[in-house]
Amino acid sequence: MSYSHIIGIDGASARQPEHDRVAIVGAAYVDGRLEEILTDSVAHDGDDGTDVMVRLVRQSGHLNQAELIMLTDITFAGFNVIDLRQLSERLSSPVLVCALRPPDREALKKSLLGYVKNGREKWARIAALGPMQPIAGLYAHLIGLSNSTAKQIIERTSTHGFMPDPLRTARLVASGLEDGLSVGAS
């Protein structure tokens, strides 16, 4: 499979916890070209992230062609933890999570178990994935992809930095929505 139809998803940061909802942005790419921007929001520290991402992708004009879903993380809006396996199953697409560095799993576990509603369930979802794997200069979680395929996708789609373009674009738009200004970076 060529994986030419990719939707990358990132979210605005949850720096302002007084906001009940935090924006997420999808960038739909076809053959390396940006075709569509999608937006929605998830609850801060909530449990709706997987459902919202499914809805976000389904509103895309490229839904039936989406061959891969990329995420920048498995937690959005604070501790709204995405169920990657469920996301993959419900959209019938593999999922690739890419990060510049792996999360501090012990700090994450401590925060989830000590301070977050449904933290035990959320930690179980994260723990079941195991640590992120180093692939093509990034760290990744893979659902429905081999390491070699993920490496090829990352290398092919990272034309303007370390992050794949669908994720880089989603990050730029999400940052712009939050701050009113967005500056490109790897």
Write the layout of secondary structure elements.
Elements: E1 5-11, E2 21-30, E3 33-43, H1 49-58, E4 68-71, E5 75-76, E6 80-81, H2 84-91, E7 95-99, H3 105-115, H4 119-129, E8 133-135, E9 138-143, H5 147-157, H6 165-179
Parallel strand pairs: 1-4, 4-7
Antiparallel strand pairs: 1-2, 2-3, 5-6, 7-9, 8-9
Q: Provide the CATH topology.
A: archaeoglobus fulgidus dsm 4304 fold
Shape: globular
**Count of structural domains:** 1
CATH architecture annotation: 2-Layer Sandwich
Q: List the secondary-structure elements in sequence, H or E.
A: EEEHEEEHEHHEEHH
Major sheet strand order = 3-2-1-4-7-9-8
As a percent range, the share of helical residues equals 25-40%
From the helix content, strand content and strand pairing, which structural class follows?
alpha+beta
Strand content: 25-35%
CATH class placement: Alpha Beta
Total helical elements: 6
Going by CATH, the homologous superfamily would be archaeoglobus fulgidus dsm 4304 superfamily
Q: Mind describing the biggest β-sheet?
A: 7 strands, mixed
Distance between the termini: 27 Å
- Rg over CA atoms, rounded to whole Å, is 15 Å
Tally the beta strands.
Answer: 9
Given as residue ranges, the uncertain stretches (5+ residues, pLDDT < 50) are none
Structural commentary:
The protein has 186 residues and is of the alpha+beta class. It has a single domain, classed as archaeoglobus fulgidus dsm 4304 superfamily (archaeoglobus fulgidus dsm 4304 fold), CATH 3.30.2170. The protein is built from six helices and nine strands, in the order βββαβββαβααββαα. It has helices at residues 49-58, 84-91, 105-115, 119-129, 147-157, 165-179, and strands at 5-11, 21-30, 33-43, 68-71, 75-76, 80-81, 95-99, 133-135, 138-143. The strands form two sheets. The protein has a seven-stranded mixed β-sheet with strand order 3-2-1-4-7-9-8. The protein has a two-stranded antiparallel sheet with strand order 5-6. Strand 2 and strand 3 form a beta hairpin. Helix 1 runs parallel beside helix 2 (84-91) and helix 3 runs antiparallel to helix 4. The radius of gyration is 15 Å and the shape is globular. The relative contact order is 0.19. The model has no long low-confidence stretch (mean pLDDT 91).
